[in-house]
Specification:
The structure holds two protein chains of two kinds. Chain A is mainly beta. Helix content of chain A is 0%, strand content 44%. In chain A, the strands form three sheets. In chain A, strands 2, 5, 6, 9, 10 and 11 form a six-stranded mixed β-sheet that branches. In chain A, strands 3-8-7 form a three-stranded antiparallel β-sheet, with no helix packed on it. Chain A has a two-stranded antiparallel sheet with strand order 1-4. The radius of gyration of chain A is 13 Å and the shape is globular. The N and C termini of chain A lie far apart (41 Å). In chain B, a hairpin with a 6-residue loop joins strand 4 and strand 5. Classes of the chains: A mainly beta, B mainly beta. The interface between A and B is medium-sized, with 20 and 26 residues.
């Protein structure tokens, strides 16, 4: 069975501070990992995926297969980063079925 | 261009009633997905359509839930004999081909069963 765990329900940081949102996964194989973000009153949208190795809005995430983690990081948080963040995976067997974590609500204080 | 749209945005119904939730995917997207998000949880997969056919309905919780996509575009999620536990936000998403490509989500329908 595949599972995504986001241990922090809430995370609060000050503007300009580094931020790390944790994500661990359980999957017997090589999954594809994603971070989705939902800003207030907006729909869920893709932030980044591990295969593209991009930095989006200053966020990066590295897949660590040894620790089965895909933590999301940003060196200097901005107030507009305040949102709900979901880590998700697609198992190689399905190619389409997203399995989400429960999400972390990030608040960046001025 | 227009994104995924869902109607209604909110639906309040009584236990035991029948409801239909509609999803309009992005034009040209062959893949369509339904997810359910309960309070405090992440979205959970319900069903995946490739064209007109349900390629994977393994996430539907029981036979009260059914979904169709008769012309390969608009989809309707149907729930019979609603129960209070069905209360959730129902999300629809679409993607171009359905093979690991980006899923674009709609705003969701918030279903409340009294």
């Amino acid at each position: 069975a595949q599972r995504v765990t986001q241990p922090e329900k809430l995370l609060s940081v000050f503007k300009g501070a580094p931020v790390e949102l944790k994500c661990n996964y359980s999957y017997s194989g090589s999954p594809e990992l994603f971070w989705y973000v939902q800003y207030s009153r907006q729909r869920l949208q893709l932030l980044l995926r591990h295969i593209s190795r991009e930095s989006i809005k200053g966020f990066t995430a590295d897949l660590n297969k040894g620790e089965t983690s895909f933590h999301l990081k940003k060196p200097f948080a901005q107030e507009e980063d305040s949102a709900m963040y979901y880590c998700a995976l697609i198992g190689r067997g399905s190619n389409y079925k997203l399995t989400f974590g429960k999400g972390t609500l990030l608040t960046v204080n001025p | 261009g227009a994104g995924v749209s869902q109607t209604p945005s909110n639906k309040v119904t009584e236990k035991g009633k029948y409801v239909e939730l509609r999803c309009d995917p992005i034009s040209g997207h062959t893949a369509l997905y339904w997810y359910r998000q309960s309070l405090g949880q992440g979205p959970e997969f319900l069903i995946y359509f490739q064209g007109t056919g349900a390629a994977d309905d393994s996430g539907l919780p029981n036979d009260r839930f059914f979904a169709v996509r008769p012309e390969g575009s608009v989809s309707t999620l149907k729930i019979q004999r609603t129960e209070r536990g069905d209360s959730a936000v129902y999300l629809c998403a679409s993607s171009l081909t359905g093979t690991s490509d980006e899923q674009f989500f709609g705003p969701g329908t918030r279903l409340t069963v009294l």
